[in-house]
Write a structure and sequence with these properties.
It is a single chain. The chain is α+β, with helices and mostly antiparallel strands and about 220 residues long. It has one domain. It is built from five helices and twelve strands. The strands form three sheets. Strands 7-12-8-9-10-11 form a six-stranded antiparallel β-sheet. A hairpin with a 5-residue loop joins strand 1 and strand 2. Helix 2 crosses helix 4. The chain starts with a strand and ends in a 13-residue tail after the last helix.
Length: about 220
């Protein structure tokens, strides 16, 4: 039976048997002693994206007294949900992420990860802890962002949109660049993507890219 620990681009935590390519957490323990999700969906504003393997550490998922391991299809999914790279296991990626953010405004030079976490927390949660979205023309949305069309999540990639599912991207459509849609990826993360951050994508997205002349790059995440 699958644990309820898979995160969607909407920020929801669901049960699904498909394996994720990234792990993360929301600052603490969200599960009960029965290895089931409780009522809380976060314990701190630090929602992070981690490597599946780091320094040979071994963990039993949803163990007593430990933080709840969450899993993502890919980094684009995690960013849409409101997470950001971990400063321990992904130091180079995290430094690039926050430095691009600082570079967008000279006044941000002295800010730290906690300031970014607080900003992302405000941007990802709306009234009654619902997902907060912004409206943009799809032509203005950077690659690697997630958008919502007909209540479904789609990845923006070049001139196409790819339909998200827990196990991979399932179909594509030409991106209607003049259409205004709800954007799932938080505003600050959108600006960081626009500034040049390239999130890691699931292999199914790469398969679509190989069949089309689309600009697709994968961020080198080795430490």
């Amino acid at each position: 039976m699958a644990h309820q620990n898979r995160v969607t681009p909407f920020g929801d935590i669901i049960a699904d048997p498909a394996r994720g390519t990234w792990m993360g957490n929301r600052g603490g323990r969200l599960h009960t002693e029965h290895r089931e999700l409780g009522t809380s969906r976060w314990k701190s504003k630090a929602w992070i994206i981690c490597k599946l393997c780091f320094k040979g550490r071994q963990r039993t998922v949803m163990s007593p007294g430990t933080y709840t391991e969450l899993f993502f299809l890919d980094e684009a999914t995690a960013l849409a949900a409101g997470h950001r790279p971990c400063f321990e296991c992904r130091r180079r990626d995290a430094d690039r992420f926050i430095n691009l953010w600082r570079g967008l405004n000279p006044a941000l030079v002295d800010v730290r990860a906690g300031d970014l976490d607080s900003l992302l927390h405000r941007e990802r949660l709306g009234l009654k802890h619902t997902k907060r979205v912004i409206e943009l023309k799809l032509g203005d949305v950077p690659d690697g962002a997630m958008v919502m069309l007909d209540d479904e999540a789609w990845l923006k990639l070049g001139e196409v949109l790819l339909a998200w599912s827990p196990s991979g991207y399932t179909t594509s459509q030409v991106c209607p660049v003049e259409r205004t849609a709800a954007i799932l990826t938080p505003a600050t993360t959108l600006s960081i993507l626009t500034a040049g951050y390239k999130p890691s994508l699931h292999d199914s997205a790469r398969e679509f890219a190989l069949s089309r002349p689309l600009p697709l790059t994968r961020l080198d995440t080795d430490i």
